[in-house]
Amino acid sequence: MTYAEATEWLFQQLPMFQRQGPAAYKANLDGTKYVLEKMGRPDLHLDGVVHVAGTNGKGSVCTAVSNALVETGYRVGLFTSPHLVDFRERMRVCGEMPPESWVVQRVSHFKRELPDWTYQPSFFEWTFGLALLWFVEEQVDLVVLETGMGGRLDSTNVFTSPLVTAITNIGLDHQQFLGDDIRTIAGEKAGILKDGVPVVLGRMRPEAQSVILAAAMRTASETHYAELADDVSLESGPYWPDNKATASKILEVLGNQPGWRNWKPPLKLHATGHRGRWEWMPPTLSGARVLVDCAHNLDGLERFMMGIAAIEHQRLWIVWGAVADKDLQSVWPMLPKEATYCFCAANIPRAMDAVQLHEKAQEVGLNGSAYDSVAEALNAATKEADANDLVVVLGSIFIAAEALQTAQ
Fold first, then answer.
1. What angle do CA 334, 335, 340 make, to 5 degrees?
2. What pLDDT score was predicted for residue 15?
3. How far apart are alpha carbons 82 and 88 in whole angstroms?
4. Band of the pLDDT at 269, cuts 50, 70, 90?
């Protein structure tokens, strides 16, 4: 079995939510617990856990916390999702992915065992279990976990006594699973709170915060608030100040936990390098700058558009794609009409057809052309862009991922 065959087999294990959508959602933790049992309960060999939920920013916060701890000399396992270029991005130890050979070996082993199992795990359950195995084998001091979706029923929510929990913010996303309003979604995110475990709150809406605080009272969780941040820069993007403040508070709370060794957090947290989040690609031959971002829900798009409005540019080119079940009516008002759009579809079953997307966009006054692939759309934009232009790639995680792959 090759690495490509191993990952393809994983992608085919029941519907993969990122690619197929709602059919892949598992509304309980039974499957995760079954997988962990079959893998020898790696979760029981990991004592230190930081668990982070939220609508936007949770992956960047997790990455920042992990990077800071690694800089102090700790061995840290980092679990994030989804991956953009390589499956192994989801499980890193001190910033390093496991060898391809390790993935092949583990997948081959469990694939042989699977016929004797009474349950067929989902892609995410497989991935989470493999990540914990890798962390145990690498003898990490601490694991930083990003929830996949929600919190209460997410596979990552199997640790009963994490050192710290955190919630970055609450916005409208995945409503078909988490609820139709902010308070309901906040209740799902608050499902990661544990009895007596401190919780860090990032900046969020008052109605969301009230739900989290009520949950914190029920679990007797000491509540800590991320401080306001003010170091916005065009290079690190509009999300980083809030993410930095939340990560900083997590590190502060972690350092005060009983039984956790004393350590001195770094004087400066660095912009995370979490891929596809305000990531600058190499400039075009003309000198035009190219920015890639995964922003796709309303809160993320609003912050992103505020960010690019502060960047000096002549013309704006937007490489844009969406998934077929996207509520475009709420998105259209946020997209600048002065931009030239290169519409495209990612190479996944969920993608909305580029021609259809173009037609819908024309109805609301957005102008551009449709292209057969993300690569073609990006190539068209970068060829036409002049030195003072800005090229932006966004619309979905998959659009960002394929754009980044073209730069490999």
1. 175
2. 54
3. 10
4. confident
Model pTM?
0.89
Helix (H, G, I), strand (E, B) or coil at 290: strand
On whether the CB atoms of residues 344 and 377 are closer than 8 A, the answer is yes
**Residue 20 confidence (pLDDT) above 80:** no
Q: Is residue 258 scored above 80 in pLDDT? A: no
Pick the CATH number of 3-255 from 3.40.50.2300, 3.40.50.460, 3.20.20.80, 3.40.1190.10: 3.40.1190.10
Side by side, which strands form the sheet with 91-93? 91-93, 76-79, 142-146, 49-53, 164-167, 199-201, 223-225
Going by their DSSP bridges, the two strands 223-225 and 199-201 should be labelled as parallel
Alpha carbon distance 180, 159 (integer Å): 27
Q: State the alpha helices, DSSP H only, in 229-312.
A: 240-255, 298-309
User: 167: helix, coil or strand?
Assistant: strand
Domain boundaries in the chain? 3-255, 279-406
What pLDDT was estimated at residue 178? 55
Mean pLDDT of the region 215-223: 94
Return the C-alpha torsion angle 195, 197, 201, 207, nearest 10.
Answer: 10
Q: How far lies 301's CA from each of 246, 284, 296, 304, 330, in Å?
A: 20, 24, 6, 5, 11
Please name the residue that has the structure tokens 């065959």: 5
Rounded Cα distance, 363 and 269, in Å: 44
